[in-house]
Amino acid sequence: MAVSKPAPGVIRxxxxxxxxxxxxxxxxxxxxxxxxxxIENSLDAKSTSIQVTVKQGGLKLLQIQDNGSGVRKEDMExxxxxxxxxxxxxxxxxxxxxxYGFRGEALASISxxxxxxxxxxxxxxxxxxxxxxxxxxxxxxxxxxxxNIGTQITVEDLFYNITTRRKALKSPSDEHAxxxxxxxxxxxxxxxxxxxxxxxxxxxxDVRTPVxxxxxxxxxxxxxxxxxxxxxxxxxxxHGLYSIYLSYSxxxxxxxxxHGLYSIYLSYSxxxxxxxxxHGLYSIYLSCSRALANYAxxxxxxxxxxxx
Length: 308
Hints:
alpha+beta; Heat Shock Protein 90; nine-stranded mixed β-sheet; about 25% helix; globular
């Protein structure tokens, strides 16, 4: 007796909303991921002050305020659509890209899994403009309002429409700690920018760094003097890179859990570490960014703090 085979499944094109929410889940996995994308947008906008406000670990409220270049009113309609960006126009621009992001997916992804409000003002604008977004689209026409030069992005009810993602997250206190960690790392890497992060309603900030500081100063502010006193800043002027040396006796690429610091993992295919036995020195070279550091004794290992 012949065994009947199951009928083939019907191939259907997924609804655009479903596609966008799936894509958003790949980019935005938790509040800290959303904040990372928004911080990079602020840095790309040449901000010197970035303030972050968090409620319930960023699930109820995640707000970032910067003093960067702002968004033009004419661009407000499409700012949350996928693949809309001011950072490149043609494929060849990738050869000289100098920004953190360029694809134009961050705000779009966030708007598909949260309620997003953007208030922004450019230097040439007489007032600010506010727009509210859902699923990448404006919910109503942009309205003029009061506001400082720069951009404020308010993200509310993150993952309100993806209950499985929301349930998979840790407690609000754990998510808040991850948000603070992201701000701390960018503050050390971008010492010329002042960073602040605090819980909504609190008067005391979890992290506050001044403008035009140094990486070591920010390490001292965030992680305390005991670790900062063992750090030496090395500035490679030829390439504009900072490296931080910390006296630990473990491997180069590791997580220093005692102090909450991450090293840069030397997992690049073009990374080369060698030992100069005649001088007892280690040198680390990355061909993509030249020599990052050239000194580390037996108990001193390097943390490259150029980019996350």
